[in-house]
């Protein structure tokens, strides 16, 4: 009997083949039945009905795009690598800015019940706001579309990090705090050598949720602000009615999102501990 | 009255009971410890033993009374008072060695890396764990974890070592082995130790004196029982000493029949009892200390 992994891989591949096969079959153009009428010839023999492109067309396009991902032929014709690069840059910038605020404030809220009670109402009101709702305000205040997109990423990734940090810090086991106290550690050393490592797995979980949300939001944000980025690319190809490109970029969004999550997952495993 | 190493005077702990009244766990706790003494405290659950220990550790505050150690009032936790908790309280993200290094570095911040490491390894060796330096606590058995915890406490060489039922969570066989180890380390270091236990045999094996607490609420330390068994002791041979049985009978009788109504002396200090008075003689080499005490008695 083959190992579980091998069997799972076989099953995965057969699902893929089945799905692609069904897709390919259902999207074939109808065979020409008779010679074209004069009108049809005048119209260049164009199909009357538009169709989702078959997977073979998408794969062909993907091959083309991926073999030259970084070309730049003007504002509306850039390689997929460049577009993804813009998006990743915006996500990471907004994400790091959120981290710089969320971790210290989360520590503060987690360690001080007073601060928790004082700030909690604001957090509860601000947290459920769709990050895109901030966009008009951001555009008006910041007056820069790129920075506004980054701000939207900042505002959407701050909450999971903030709340998880506060939760992790507040729930560090009393015993470990007592160990710090009986060893006469000061506040800062207790925070860095006991509370931080103890809360790190919870904090990393928040960071992982945040990067996922940030990647979801960047696509929508770039559709709004335009110019560059994978979100803009999807919308631009839709305007071009190039559905093969749309499907291809959807897949690329998924792949990059997965890579971001994998990276955070690796980092999470580094700080995990078993009790 | 001459000043002892540790003087506990009129300690009490009062909680609000939730209905506007007050609930006194223990009151007017008075005792003193001498340097180098090993003292166990026994009492039924709910008499506040752990609270007393936490107050000594500085982790909890008494409602009234005061504590003086080496002529200084005890306020808050300090490295002068090491604690071994029942649940080990090792930092699970650190290796065995680094758990000790953490404590040693806190104790002597000016020491070099090598000195800290060498000191830490020495204490891990004392508890027989020099082969598990790089393992995480989760990879150790309960007994091994408690040894690390004991090594950590001894390594900081506190003036007073507080053990909160350190073997409570261990199975009987493991417990015996670690008790022997504790006896050995204590013979080597002669730390002053204050320990909570529920186990009468453990108390006799380890202590010079045993404090008996009456039941809560309003619990008191009613008696201070001298254990007239000479050092060095060993779990394998201690039961051959008639003083052991005499002491054991006395303790069990207290816990079963008398702990409900027992009271200390009128001045609040525990009644000093020597159930095996004079029986320590047949031991092969009575120490000077026990001989002197026998003469005084």
From TrEMBL, chain A:
Keyword Oxidoreductase: no
Domain ABC transmembrane type-1: 84-264
Bilayer topology annotation: Multi-pass membrane protein
CDD domains per the UniProt record, alphabetical: TM_PBP2 (cd06261)
Keywords: Cell inner membrane, Cell membrane, Ion transport, Membrane, Transmembrane, Transmembrane helix, Transport
NCBIfam families from the UniProt entry: ntrB
Full protein name: Nitrate ABC transporter permease
From TrEMBL, chain B:
Keywords: ATP-binding, Cell membrane, Membrane, Nucleotide-binding, Transport
Gene3D superfamilies: P-loop containing nucleotide triphosphate hydrolases
Chief place of localization: membrane
Keyword Transport recorded: yes
Protein localization: Cell membrane
ABC transporter domain mapped to chain residues: 6-240
Membrane topology: Peripheral membrane protein
Domain of life: Bacteria
GO molecular function, one term: ATP binding
Keyword Transport attached: yes
Spans annotated as Disordered: 263-297
InterPro entries in UniProt: AAA+_ATPase, ABC_transporter-like_ATP-bd, ABC_transporter-like_CS, ABC_transporter_ATP-bind, NO3_transporter_ATP-bd-like, P-loop_NTPase
PANTHER family attached to this UniProt entry: NITRATE ABC TRANSPORTER ATP-BINDING PROTEIN (PTHR42788:SF7), TAURINE IMPORT ATP-BINDING PROTEIN-RELATED (PTHR42788)
Similarity section: Belongs to the ABC transporter superfamily.
NCBIfam families: ntrCD
UniProt name for this protein: ABC transporter ATP-binding protein
Source lineage: Bacteria, Pseudomonadati, Pseudomonadota, Gammaproteobacteria, Pseudomonadales
């Amino acid at each position: 009997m083959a190992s579980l992994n091998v069997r799972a891989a076989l099953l995965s591949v057969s699902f893929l083949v089945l799905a692609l096969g069904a897709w390919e079959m259902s999207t074939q153009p109808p065979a020409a039945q008779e010679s074209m009428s004069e009108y049809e010839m005048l119209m260049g023999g164009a199909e009357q009905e538009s169709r989702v492109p078959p997977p073979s067309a998408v794969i062909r396009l993907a091959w083309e795009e991926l073999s030259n991902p970084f070309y730049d032929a003007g504002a509306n014709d850039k390689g997929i690598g460049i577009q993804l690069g813009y998006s990743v840059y915006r996500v990471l910038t907004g994400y790091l800015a959120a981290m710089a605020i969320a971790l210290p404030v989360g520590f503060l809220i987690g360690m001080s019940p007073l601060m928790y009670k004082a700030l909690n109402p604001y957090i509860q009101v601000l947290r459920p706001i769709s990050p895109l709702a901030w966009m008009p305000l951001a555009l008006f205040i910041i007056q820069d579309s790129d920075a506004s997109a980054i701000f939207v990423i900042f505002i959407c990734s701050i909450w999971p990090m903030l709340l998880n940090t506060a939760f992790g810090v507040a729930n560090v086991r009393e015993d470990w705090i007592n160990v710090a106290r009986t060893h006469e550690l000061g506040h800062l050393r207790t925070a860095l050598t006991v509370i931080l490592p103890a809360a790190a797995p919870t904090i990393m979980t928040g960071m992982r949720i945040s990067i996922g949300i940030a990647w979801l939001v960047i696509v929508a944000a770039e559709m709004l602000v335009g110019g560059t980025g994978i979100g803009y690319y999807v919308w631009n190809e839709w305007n071009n009615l190039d559905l093969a490109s749309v499907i291809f970029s959807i897949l690329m969004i998924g792949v990059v999102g997965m890579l971001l999550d994998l990276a955070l997952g690796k980092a999470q495993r580094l700080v995990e501990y078993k009790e | 009255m001459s000043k002892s190493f540790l003087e506990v005077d009129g300690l009490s702990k009062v909680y609000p009971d939730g209905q506007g009244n007050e609930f006194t766990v223990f009151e007017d706790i008075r005792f003193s410890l001498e340097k180098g003494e090993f003292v166990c405290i026994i009492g039924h659950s709910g008499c506040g033993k752990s609270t007393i220990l936490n107050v000594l550790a500085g982790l909890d505050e008494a409602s009234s009374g005061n504590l003086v150690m080496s002529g200084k009032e005890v306020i808050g936790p300090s490295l002068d008072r090491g604690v071994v908790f029942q649940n080990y309280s090792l930092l699970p993200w650190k290796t065995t060695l680094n758990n000790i290094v953490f404590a040693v570095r806190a104790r002597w911040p000016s020491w070099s890396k090598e000195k800290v490491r060498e000191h830490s390894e020495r204490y891990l060796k004392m508890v027989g764990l020099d082969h598990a330096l790089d393992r995480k606590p989760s990879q150790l058995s309960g007994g091994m974890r408690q040894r690390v915890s004991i090594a950590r406490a001894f390594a900081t060489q506190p003036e007073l070592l507080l053990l909160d039922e350190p073997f409570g969570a261990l199975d009987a066989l493991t417990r015996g082995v670690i008790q022997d180890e504790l006896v050995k380390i204590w013979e080597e270091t002669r730390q002053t130790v204050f320990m909570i236990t529920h186990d009468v045999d453990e108390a006799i094996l380890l202590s010079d004196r045993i404090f008996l607490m009456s039941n809560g609420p309003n619990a008191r330390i009613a008696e201070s029982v001298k254990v007239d068994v000479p050092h060095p002791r060993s779990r394998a041979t201690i039961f051959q000493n008639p003083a052991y049985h005499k002491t054991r009978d006395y303790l069990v009788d207290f816990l079963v029949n008398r702990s409900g109504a027992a009271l200390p002396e009128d001045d609040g200090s525990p009644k000093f009892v020597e159930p095996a008075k004079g029986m320590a003689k047949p031991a092969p080499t009575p120490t000077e200390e026990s001989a002197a005490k026998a003469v005084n008695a």
